[in-house]
Design goal:
The complex is a heterodimer. Chain A has 12 helices and no strands. By secondary structure, chain A is mainly α. The radius of gyration of chain B is 24 Å and the shape is elongated. Chain B contains 15 helices and 3 strands. Chain B has a 3-stranded antiparallel β-sheet, covered by helices on one side.
Chain lengths: 326, 348
Amino acid sequence: MLTYIIRRLLLTIPTLIGITLVTFIIVNLAPGDPAQFQSQGIMDPEVSIKTYEKLREYYGLDKPVHVRYVDWLGRLVTLDFGESMSTDRRPVADKIKERLWPTMSLAILAIGISLLLSIPIGIYSAVKKDKLFDTLSSTILYALYSVPSYVMAVPLILLLGVQWDLLPFQGMTSDNYDQLSFGGKAIDLVKHYTLITFCTTFGAWAFYARFVRQNMLEVLGQDYIRTARSKGLPEKTVIMKHGFRNSLIPLVTLMGLILPGIIGGSVILEVMFNWPGMGRLFFESMLSRDYPTIMALSFITACLVLLGTLLADLSYTFVDPRVSYD
Amino acid sequence: MKKKKSQSESYLSNIWRRMKKNRRCMAGLIFVLAMIGIATFSPLLASNQPIICKHEGKWYFPAIVEIFQSRGVGPHWIKKSQPFNLPQFNAKRQLDPEEFAIWPMIPYSEFEQTTEYYLPPSSQHWLGTDELGRDIAARMIHGTSVAVKVGFISMGIAALIGIVVGGLAGYWGGWVDIVISRLIEIVICFPVFFLILAIMVWLEPSIINVMVVIGLTGWTSIARYTRGEFIRLKTQDFVIAAEVVGAKHGRIMFRHILPNAMAPVLVSITFGIAGAILVESGLSWLGFGVQAPAPSWGNILRTAYDSLRVAPHMVYPPCIAIFLAVLAYNLVGDGLRDAIDPKLRKQG
């Protein structure tokens, strides 16, 4: 097993290099660089060109592409993402650090809540297959699964945010957040989190619940379940101990795979909710051609996803002793 | 004519027979066909020009001509037909006694602006009007073609790449497989939307580019399915038999293995179409997709979002349309998968 883990870890090295290469190529071969973007507003053509040249030199964009790639890679190893090429010129690491928590908290909430809600529903509808609850929940979950998160968000914003005026839908905190008491702050945060968390969560929830049900059905059809029943174990033990535990195995792999969906989907939701997260930062940096930020964000998310799949793969070998390691 | 000998049912007709029994799958398929129909015949459904009319003693077929002209294909007789473009001869016109016209169901074109901004739904404008006084029903109908085109063309591109890449990896194995599998893993690590946005920023935002980019980024799951199927099939007897009679590798791959690998790949293409529709409307929402004034469900949703307080009625049509389209493709995909894998179906 150790050799399997080592080999699996070694295999991520070419993938990591590939990730840096793809990131760099997509961003840097694009026409229109940040220098051009920031100098195009200047009316006087001579000043504009001079500013452009200066900015290019300042950002180091006048060097050949491969030199820049090696430079970037060298700094990346020390986790130095460089300085932002937007007008504020702050270190990229700082910019991302303050945006990391809003997005990651959403992702964690989404995965946690969807697991908590989907497992009981999935098990219950598998046990009561084709009964009213199963038919009803399966239909609703199927429909939910087909609703894109932002398509769900707009009517919710309209109803809850605008027409009934129940929940805020812009940003993470209210304008008067600093003046609120501690309890007031908590309530304010919860209110701001409610809508966007729901929109991030429901898709994963529907997906998990369907998945748990399917797995549970598969497991309940196995011989060892019949054995457990026929030796007179109580139904609860059969389902929870013999059934559910075995249906967990495929769920583990799924956890790593759901992450890119959540982070990728966060772009639209964060722009829509004016949420100060990584998705919106990505969108903003895209618009201003802020190379270092774009590259750092793509690299970090790609690594997160890689980590997710890696953990899923490795935990799979722990959870399921039947998995062979060669 | 010689009567065909009764033979065992072919693989595909077997799948089709099982799909037909699945009512939900058929409902999805019917919705997809309806979407294609609406997209094809949109000028007959919503246009300010008549379908058929008699004007100054001559007969014209403006909407039918538009079907061909707006799609850039026209048989000879359509090109030679008399041009009929009379702004004054539109749906609001009082007809003279000798004139005759059959109007489309919704007598507004998708670009026609009126002075009635943000009207709620009424008998005149079924789904209301938008910020430029355009009829939303007409825009929804004409936006259907975007959803249909994006789904099929982008997944066509993705399928082409995915099948070739996945097929090569599965068939050759060895280092080809290792390289391609790494490549797939790398592409999967980027959230699709990040990748697409990154590329869209340096392209002109247009429907063609959206389709190409979705296709270029959406091939990974197709490639994985194809690879798996090729690995499974390449050791089967019929492949070995083909090798024995000296068939070339290309022929074995695409004539012998591919048709047998097609069904599971088709499932992932179907789900891919649903995903492509979703991504397109998301891009249009962000302003990188179909550009105004051309209608698409995504940019209708964007206008709706920008005017939530003044025109709440604009929100629902695009939302429901996107939801139903995604649902329909998911139903077809699920039905197809169940039909292919009877084991799953029994448990379902």
